[in-house]
Amino acid sequence: MIGLRFAPLVCRKCGKRRSERREIIAEIVETEAKYGRDLRILLEEFERPMRVAGLLSVDQLSGIFLNTEELATASSALVSRLRDALEIAIESGDEDLLTVNVGKVFLDAAPTMLHAFQSYCTRQGAASLLLSNLEKEKELLRVFLRVSQMENAVLRRMNLNSFLMVPVQRVTKYPLLLGRLFKVTPPHAEGREMIRQAQRKIELHLEHMNAVRKLWS
Predict the structure, then answer these.
(1) What is the pLDDT of residues 12-51, one digit of tens each?
(2) Which positions are tagged coiled coil (predicted)?
(3) Is 4 among the domain residues?
C-alpha cells in the first residue's frame, strides 16, 4: 500500500522533470537562434552600411566587428545540429526528447565555436575602446549610430556597443543552460554525462579566455 501511495507522487516528479527538460532544450535552441539573429543585425545593420558609406576604413571596421562573421557561421551550425536532433527524436516518437544528445552536439561544435569565441572575446575590450574613440572623432559616425538606434526598429533601441557585447554574454550562458539541463536529465538518459563534459569544457575555456583577456589589457 505504501508503494502505491507514493507512486503517483514519483510519477508527478518524473513528469515535471521531463517537462522542464523539454523547456530547457527549447530555451537553448530559441536563445541560440536569437543570438544568431543579433549577429546578423551587427553585420547587416551596422557593419555593411558603415562600410558602403565609407564612414570607417576597412581596418577600423575590422577592429570593431572582429570575427563576427565567424561567430554567426558557428551559431548557425549549432542551431542546425540541435534542430536536426530534435526532428529525429520527434519523428521517432520520443516526445520527451530523451534521445536528444545535447551534450554531444555541444562537444562536436566546441572546437570551432570556442575558437571563434576566444578570438572575439579576448579582443572585445579593445574593440569597444576603438569605437568610443572613433565616435568622438567622427561626427558622421555619431549621427549614423544615433539615428540608427532611434529609428531602426530592427535594433530594438539597442546601440552598437550593446550588440557588440552579445557574444560575450552568450558564451557565459552556455554552462548555466547545460547545468540546468543536466539536473533534469534522468540518469539513464542517452548522453547525460556528455552534458556535464560539455559544461566543464566550456567553463575551462572561459577561464582560459579570461586569463588571455587580462594579458591583453
Answers:
(1) 777 788 899 999 999 999 999 999 999 999 999 999 999 9
(2) none
(3) no
Q: Output the 3-class SS for the chain.
A: CHHHHHHHHHHHHHHHHHHHHHHHHHHHHHHHHHHHHHHHHHHHHHHHHHHHCCCCCHHHHHHHHCCHHHHHHHHHHHHHHHHHHHHHHHHCCCCCCCCCCHHHHHHHHHHHHHHHHHHHHCCHHHHHHHHHHHHHHCHHHHHHHHHHHHHCHHHCCCCHHHHHCHHHHHHHHHHHHHHHHHHCCCCCCCCHHHHHHHHHHHHHHHHHHHHHHHHHC
CATH number of the domain bearing residue 58: 1.20.900.10
The boundaries of the domain holding residue 29 are 18-216
**Domain tally, the chain:** 1
Structural domain contains residue 134: yes
Q: Is 9 domain-assigned? A: no
Global pTM value: 0.90
